[in-house]
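Running this now, will post back.
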Amino acid sequence: MTHAYIVDALRTPTGRRKGGLAHVHAIDLGAAVLKPLVERNNIPAEDYDDVIFGCVDTIGSQAGNIARTSWLAAGLAMNVPGTTVDRQCGSSQQAVHFAAQAIMSGTQDVIAVGGVQTMTQIPISSAMLAGQPLGFSTPFAESKLWEARFGDAPVNQFYAAQRIADHWGISRADMEVFALESHRRALAAAAEGRFDREIVAIEGLTFDETPRESSLAKMAELEPVDPTYPSITAAVSSSVCDASAAMLIVSERALKKYNLTPRARIHHVSVLGDDPIWHLRAPIPATIAALKKANLTLDDIDLVEINEAFASVVMAWLKETGYSHEKTNVNGGAIALGHPLGATGVRLMTGLLHELERTGGRYGLQTMCEGGGLANVTIIERL
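Update: finished.
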């Protein structure tokens, strides 16, 4: 079987909501990672087979196939196509999977993948609510068949986060300790320069704006995001932010043709569905299934990146798998570094690759919860 290789990976800083990247058009935010990706590597732009980008809430500045428009706005070759993926929070991780599958099949050789999200300009769930003037309160509520199967249970991330916390016996105080550690790790990593190699500056911003100094006392003062979900506050939830990220994935044939040095091999890709009402729980069964397919165990995995959509998601995963928190989200997670929806998958993988290189690890596993009760799993092998 033909292997798929990661040659390069980069990202913008995460700009806090209404922060340093708030005014940047989504297309320009996407172009900000595609242009340097091409310039840094010895492949003519016209030789790229495709551009695959993740993006959620594709309305306004994010509409119109932002993979294609970002590539063109970067001044790159017009012959190169592009497509935009929406697998909710796993969109850019799925973009990686689609690219790897195309290369493994032998049908393509050079693909730019990534994701972009401007959560300041296009607030989360904008696409979910866009149909209200047309008579659709949510994408689900007016469906007779959906109601027949799932009733009127809320398809709601806060509901799922609270339900997970309750089921696994995770208290608000437990989650606040976890969240504080996420910020501590991110701030320490930034101070040590661990992010320097992966970040490309944009609009003068050279560092992540989202990590912050906090305390358990400050977190305890916060009101829940909704009184119905008493344990879920902004402190234990992922940070809203603006960002983009990109990777170059190629075949062995392209490595030889363009004299490229691979940094990692994509060892495994999979995705699994779970109950859409429990929808943040899916990384647990998805991880178990992926390891079985890959003929690996968690003992083989040197580092894990699991998206901190909410503290309870990661804490439940740690409880169920028994994996070490010390090797999970070692430089902080989305609570500190932000969750730019469509870009998060490649942002996480970019960090995972760089940290494997820094520490000399071999295998890294990445997973994340996604709307609809889904979870992607990617295992990469550092070369």
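The CA atoms of residues 269 and 378 lie 5 Å apart. More later if anyone needs it.
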